[in-house]
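Next up, sample data.

:::
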Amino acid sequence: MFKFLAHIDYLKRFCGNAYKFNLFKNDITAVLNSLQQTQTALEVSTKGLRKAGELYPGAEIMQEIAKRDITVVINDDAHCVDELGMNFDKAEAELVKYGITKRLKF
C-alpha cells in the first residue's frame, strides 16, 4: 500500500528525555516485524541530526533494523530549501556502522 513507514520513534517528540525505548519495545518490535514480513522500508531521518544530534530513529531501533535486514530510505524531512539533502553523508556513514545496507531510492 505504501513504499515506506516514517517516524517510528515519533514518541520522542512528546516524551523528550523521558522517552525510554524499553517502554515501547513490544510495539516497535511488532512494527519492525511487520516491515520485515512485508518488505516495506523504514525512514531514517536526518532531521534528528539537526534537532537532537542523532538520527531518527535512534540507536536501539537501528540495531533492531540491522537484525532484521530491513530496507531504509534516507530522508531529510526538510522544512526549507537549505535543509534538502542535509547530512545524507552522515546518515549513510551511521547506517554502514550499524551494518544496514539495503536502501530504497526514488
In short: The chain has a mean pLDDT of 90. The beta strands are 4-5, 41-45, 72-75.
